[in-house]
Amino acid sequence: MGGYVGRLAPSPTGALHLGNARTFMIAWLRARSLGGRVVMRMEDLDHPRDKPGAAAQALDDLRWLGFDWDVEYVQSTRKAVYRDAIEALLSKGLAYPCTCSRKDVESAQSAPHQGEQLYYPGTCRGRFGTWAEAAAAISPRVPCWRFDMRGFPGEVSFVDVFAGSFGMDVSRTLGDFPLARDSGGAGYTLAVVVDDAMMGVTEVVRGDDLLPATPAQIVLQRALGFARPAYCHVPLVVGEDGKRLAKRHGDTRIAGYRANGVPPEKIIGALAASCGWAGEGEHIALPDLVGRFSLSSIPHSPCKASLLGL
After folding, report:
1. Phi, psi for residue 291 in degrees, rounded to 5
2. Terminal-to-terminal C-alpha distance of the chain
3. Of 15, 132, 161, 217, which has the most beta carbons under 10 Å away?
4. Are 260 and 3 in contact (CB under 8 A)?
5. Which of 230, 141, 223 is CA-nearest to residue 189?
């Protein structure tokens, strides 16, 4: 594509809320302020949690807020691309089928873990010759593909555009991380790595809850021979308990504000004020913020939803 290419990557697992909108606003303004292109990518591979109609609603909400984009993709239509990536890893001996359930992996932990950060020591490495063989061993459950980390020891570090230096020893923290939950599909890590590369994304702007996921993505980029984009992880909007927004924090859905007659300029103004680009109570349209945008004015602490004045 040439030049700066950013992306917006909503997921249809729930309604678009203030936290999503703030992160997307930063990503969109970052691209437009640099004269760049914006890729819209609907990340709809988490089928058990996908909500009917959520994808269309998210796009409608974003347009209502003033967002636009230059090209649009839907991950669920790109499974052949992910299958090719799995085949490439298999040809290099870097992937294998695994029959361990999450419960199996959790019970094997030698230390307490947090959230999704489970360590996998390679229990199934070398056990099965093919996916079909692994599937037959645990039917009706299905295996997953895992990445073989043995060739990538040591800390994977990078300098984030906003968050600064970050590093993780993926081989010790995650071990052989999962790539896909079906023979020809892809999980989050594989899909975003393949998509960012093939869509020409030059910088990934997203919430800092995904900062710990980045080193594994960098490993996968190396394995597949992809160039590494720049990363820019920004603070989330949180509730009073300091946790990212959820239903327990009240209705922060963009659709809810729309239904109550709140104008988009008020929402954008409140989100912009939290980043230092607008005055308190100022109403402003998203495109009018392009000339005011600055990463340096964004606070490094999480943004409390209660302070947005919405």
Report:
1. -75, -15
2. 38
3. 217
4. no
5. 223
What is the distance between the alpha carbons of residues 24 and 79, in angstroms, rounded to a whole number? 25
Which pLDDT score is estimated for 113? 54
Q: In terms of residues, how long is the chain?
A: 310
Count helices and strands (H / E) in the chain: 10, 12
- In the prediction, which pLDDT does 116 show? 61
Judgement on whether residues 107 and 181 belong to the same structural domain of the protein? yes
Q: What was the pLDDT predicted at 168?
A: 97
Q: So what's the pLDDT on residue 1?
A: 43
Q: What's the pLDDT at 183? A: 81
> Tokens 């996916």 appear where?
131
Q: What pLDDT score was predicted for residue 111?
A: 57
**CB 43, CB 186: distance < 8 Å:** no
In a domain, 52, yes or no: yes
Q: How many CA atoms lie within 13 A of 119 on its CB side?
A: 13
Check whether 102 has a pLDDT greater than 90.
Answer: no
Q: Looking at residue 115, what is its pLDDT?
A: 53
3-state secondary structure of 172: helix
CATH code of the domain covering residue 26: 3.40.50.620
Domain that holds residue 260: 5-77+235-307
Would you call the peptide bond into 12 cis, given omega within 30 degrees of 0 as the criterion? no
Q: How far apart are CA 227 and CA 269, in angstroms?
A: 36
User: How large is the angle between the packed helices 264-274 and 54-65, nearest 10 degrees?
Assistant: 80
Q: Is 70 exceeded by the pLDDT of residue 169?
A: yes
The residue among 156, 190, 224 that closes a domain is 190
Q: Whole-angstrom Cα distance, residue 152 to residue 132? A: 27
